[in-house]
Design goal:
The complex is a heterotrimer. By secondary structure, chain A is of the alpha+beta class. Helix content of chain A is 34%, strand content 17%. Chain A has two domains: 4-81, Ubiquitin-like (UB roll), CATH 3.10.20.30; 89-160, [2Fe-2S]-binding domain (DNA polymerase, domain 1). Chain B has a single domain (2-75), classed as Beta-grasp domain (Ubiquitin-like (UB roll)), CATH 3.10.20. Chain B has three helices and five strands. The mean pLDDT of chain B is 90. Classes of the chains: A alpha+beta, B alpha+beta, C alpha+beta. Bound molecules: FE2/S2 (inorganic) cluster (2 copies).
Amino acid sequence: MSEAVLVSTTVNGDVVEFACPTDEVLLDSLRDRVGLTGVKEGCGTGDCGACSITLDGQLVCSCLVLGVEADGRDITTVEGLTEDGELHPLQQKFIDHAALQCGVCTPGFLVAAKALLDRNPNPTETEIRYALAGNLCRCTGYDKIVRAVQASAKELNKARR
Amino acid sequence: MQVSLNGALRSAADGNGSVDVDAATIRELITKLVDRFPKLSAEVDKGVAVAIDGVVYRDDWTVRIPDDAEVFLMPRIAGG
Amino acid sequence: MPHDNSYTGQEFKVVGNRFARPDGVDKVTGRARYGADASAPGQLVARVLRSPHAHAKITKIDTAKAERLSGVKAVITSDDLPDLTGGDRGMADILENCMARGRALYDGHAVAAVAAVDEQTARKALKLIKVTYEVLPHVTDVDEAMKPEAPVIHDWVFTGGVNPQPTKPCNVANRTEMGHGDVDAGFAQADVVIERSYKTEQTHQGYIEPHACLASVNSDGSAEMWVTTQGPFSYRTVCASLLGMDLAKLKVTSSEIGGGFGGKTHVWAEPLALALSRKANRPVKLVMTRDEVFRATGPTASTSIDVKVGAKKNGEITAAELELRYQGGAFPGIWGMLGCMTGFACYDIANQRSVGWDVIVNRPKVAAYRAPSAPMAAYAVESIMDVVAEEIGMDPVDFRLKNVAKEGAQAPYGPIYGPIGIESALNAVKENPHMKVKLKKNQGRGVACGFWFNIGGQTCVDLNIGTDGSVNLAVGTVDVGGARSSMGMIAAEELGIDYEDVKVHVADTASLGHNDTTEGSRGTFSSGMATIFAARDAIEVLKERAAQMLDVPKESIQWENGTASATGAENSNLPTLTLKEIAAKSHNTGGPIAGHNEVTADGAGMGFAAHICDVEVDPETGLTKILKYTVVQDAGKAIHPDYVEGQFQGAAAQGIGWALNEEYVYGEDGRLQNPGFLDYRIPVCSDLPFIDTMILEIPNPNHPYGIRGVGETSIVPPLGAVGNAIANATGVRMNHAPMSPIRVLEALDRAGVSGDQVSAG
Ligand code: FES
Ligand code: FES
């Protein structure tokens, strides 16, 4: 085993500590050490977005970040999107619009879409498509995903007003 | 009744595209065909289906074949 | 969304609505567990060593050093997988594909595997295994492999389907011929006869979830496997037979499945995980990397196709011929045969012949990919349909309609069609507002048709009614895209209860009888059929219990809208009983209430689709952008329209990716050069527009609800539709898919030089 370092990080609001080999990617740390298997691996090379998380609010592929880099940072995964047991509007709209078929891409899309709407509450269709271009979905042809994001934006804006 | 055969099944039936068989069920049909053309047995093992009046039966060999039905023996296909 | 109900006679209450799927919350919260998401105490991590050579003799495998590495618990080679296949060629091929036996047959072919305490150790161990190869000549191209001078990959392959059978081995496994009528006479009657050749490259299903399993073999020979699969029962059958286990002792549980599209109908590394677990006597988790998925699972065939069509000036096709060459990877396949059976299926052509060749090359073993083999044949046929229409000066849609297959037409593979939907689909295309959208410079529109058989197969379900009247339905087909919803809706419809009162589970192999793999668009058709029958079975029990409760003979009980009532004037004072009320008293009336069904679901209805595609081609870069896309497809009966549309859209998107970008690129050295999503580029969100859909419902007479499979057909038309749109936009006909920017640019350049119709690629 390669050398391990103690990492202390905040994941979905909870402080988490784990010993992390220096060559382990954050995706594996989250899945195998923190037990958050909602973060998916589709490629391991930054091409599919299934492993999307936010790190200090920044959208990243957790397969391209080392576990040790998470030390002292703030992580949100799909498991952190619900608030007080309530689904985030994006989660609800994904269900309502049948925006998932197999669902393995869904955690990554939700995290990426939330990052988009946090930054840009009124995205155009084109902006949505480009913001989600780093997330691959092989099942849906993206149609219902884009519609679900549009519907979520509308709902979130209504709530804000 | 006339049974039509295509592709590899036709080659295994010594090149016959159409064979006269008396059979009440798919099982009987296949048994009689294999008796007559032993080379068909390998094709049956690979999988065959029978189309009776346009309805494709892949598995159920108990299906009854009506008189003067249009019958085709074809390879058993699967899919994605 | 246009939704044509005019064909269905049946009235439905639940079916046809858009309910939330029961597994939705799990899947949007990250709780759903897929192949890689399970673990077991003491589990080991497996890694597989793969051949870097396209074709090589393995003279020695030295595993001693790897075995000595601390933390390594098992190392296996083909010696640990003795051949128990007893002359079953198909099984022997699967075994050899799982792990090379003396010879590596393609880049990525498994050679050895290790199980170690962690990932790092397993990877280190792989590096310590020393394999001595003697590199052999290889061939990866389908046309090259057919040449007499090509290296012969297997000395046991003698071309089947030709008389007399050759005595010299070669790479052509099989020749298939289909058709009817007299093609020579037909061509003689034609006013125009056109011949063209097309090529398509190899593509991969590209499911986002790599293959993954957790295998655990006990010292008493019993075993369990958690695995992402379309066919838990067939995985069990194959694994048990390769490893010499009893079926009943191997329990296979299908995890949530992150896409399959045919690629998860076949075992790849799962037997290795079991063999490692058996040797190490510990649970073993094996997860493929994306690189392994591309190199060592089953993509679709690459092809080379000649097509010839003769037609009269009035548009009638007098004869048509196809010659199709499909490579199936390193083992014999049936892919050329399927091309033969599907190529002309959309048309009524009196004189037709299709000849298919199944060819072996040094590439991974081909597996089914959504309507396997049909898209390539359709690319050739749908392209030449436009070429012929133009030649005789007819509108391409009218030309198709003139020759369209209707009820009573003969399919290329022989039988006469029952009621089918391609004429309706083409008419719907013709009327579709999409056809009237104005096109600008460099833009073009193409239309194409597609066919897929669809299948049924062995199926069973268990329906258990709880004492509170809620219902558990266990099915044996997996849920790749909302199937639980559809099954729940069907059960609710039959029982006359609310959708929310039914909970659907995908059962493991120990809890339900055999179910065929979820393939061939059979899930909703077959499990839907079994669910209907199981619910009717349960209703019989409910009626009997109601009769007891009301103290009347069972014959006088009728079941309507989820309630039992006694018929006859003498019983008019008796109460009606709801399913809930009957369930609550079940302990006093004979115990648990359940319905079961085991069925061989035959009579699957053929699936037909027609697509419209608008593109814009950038003449500077050769880049093709999809502007607008419409899918029209016959569903027989759409149980859950959202998920039917989802199938149409997903299949179309895969077809578009194949048409424009996706391809396996092999180097001179026979190695796959693009085994990753960066270089094997599937469509991303910004590549596509919304994909409009129109569901036709022409009931399948062989299904109680009229259901046809919907999963596959719509991957068939896009190659032709996109090619036709490019030709319409540029005047240049592409005949090599994918029609990537470089190929389009080359074709445009050549057209610019010659000013003529050009061949690209
Ligand atoms: S797994 Fe990280 S981008 Fe694919
Ligand atoms: S729903 Fe399957 S990959 Fe997106």
